[in-house]
Every structure is written in structure tokens, then in C-alpha cells.
Amino acid sequence: MFGKVLFPTDFSAYANTVFACLPDLKAIGVGMVVLVNVIRSNDVPMPETINQESLNRVRWSIQEQLNIAQMALEGHDLRVNSRIEYGSVSEQIVKVATEERVDLIVVGAQGKTLSEELLLGSTAYSVLRQSAVPVLVLKANVVRDMGHVKCKGICSGAFSHILHPTDFSECATRVFQIVRQLKSCGVEEVVLLHVQDERALRHISSEQLSVFDLEDTERLKQMSRALSLKGIGSRLMLRHGHPVREIVRASEEEEVSLLVIGTRGRSAIQEILAGSTAENVIRLARCPVLAIPCSG
To answer: Per the confidence metrics, is the pTM higher than 0.90?
Structure first.
């Protein structure tokens, strides 16, 4: 399902930590990795004014690092292709993903401490909005000590215990169809979660809420039966509150290894301006997140 993946790297300590997780993705069927480094426009003068010799030196240095990374992955029986691009980092990543026809983009999200909000890097955030293929956001804990950066990756067994929040929308239905296909990736159990949005419940009577709860519980049961037909175990969870808060809380309480959620990308203009539920969940979740793009 995810045979070919794209991994963008800037060779930082953080990127190297996420890179170290790539061999673990063989468990979900990954057989080929496309490595890409993007020379940012603001790091090097524009082509019409650039000193070609200087650019060649930069490209040579990057290629040497890509070669080392390639040999490391090939040592884990992964096939590797590498590319160097120039321009906007997120735009080039998405362009390469399209040209290489990858099944998945792997990026990282950085956190300071467990008590602070995990921060999604601007590049990863832009890729999530633009990508037409799923994006796996791997998380790492970052500790800065005496000027040194130490990173600890969170990637082993990422697909074993999944939390899948749903609002029963058309987008969520498309994402669930992908969740149903993840048995081959090592999925053992899926926690199906629906959150009754407290903002929409303010003018609803308790009787009406009970009816909604019964209807939505039945929807979750139907999804559970669909997973059972694929040999995947599941548990149901219905909560009331703010969707972002409840999704993140459930992921921590259940100690899930992966959160699978849908994103609407550029088509949802109002959500982009306000910050969508998916984007905020990806920012705050401490576990890896598989973001599935869908239109509408």
C-alpha cells in the first residue's frame, strides 16, 4: 500500500532522527525511498545572479550527504533514489512527490517537552496542505542541553494501535476506507472515535442529544463490523466536548501508536484561515499522525 515513500531532509539532528525511523517502515510495505534536499531560494542567490561555481560546491556537498544516507538505507535492503531541488521547500517536495508517484510523504514534527505543545514545522505544515498523497507525520522529542540537540524518535510499531476520529462526513468516509486496508501494515486494533462538538450542542435538549448519541453509536458499530470483516479488531468511543481537545486526550489515554485523520487541504478556505480540526490535532498530538487528503 505504501511501497514508495518520499523523505525530505535538511540533514539536521532532528531530520536525522526521523530518517532513522525509515527502516521501520518496511513493516508497512515500504520498499523504496526517495530522498530529497531542497536548496532554498533565500539561501542561495537567484539563478540569474548566481555564481555557478558556488552553486556546484553546494550541490556537491549535499550530494555527498545524500550518498551516505542512501548507503545507510540500502544496508536495510531498501531501494533508494535521491534528488536535489531548488526553490520553495514545500512546493518542491510536493512537486517531487507527484513526479516520482510516491504513495506516502514522511515528514517530522518537533516538540520541546512533553508538557508543551508539539510544534509542527512550517515546511511540514505547508506540505500537509498541498499534498495530494497521504503524509505520515513522525514525532520526536527534542532536548537541548548545553548547546547540543538530542532527539528521540517515536516510530517503532507505528501502525499497531490506531485511533481514527470520524465526523461521518464524506471526507471521513474516504479516510475510513483506507483504514480498512491497513491490516497488511500490522494493524491490530482501531479505536473508532466520534466527538459530539460542544459548540453545536448549546441549543440542543438532552432528549435530542440522546437521540444523536444513539444514532452515532450505531454508525460506529457499522464501522466496527466493516473492520471485523477485514480481520481488524476495534473499540468504540463517543465523547462530548471540543473535537481537537477530545481527540488528543483520547490518543494519550489510549496510548495509541498512530492517529489517522483526514485533511481537506486548500479546498476548505474558511478552515484554512481558522485552523482546521485536523491541522490542530496534528500540531498537538504526541503520537505519529497519518494525514489522508480528501477534497470537499
So the answer is: no
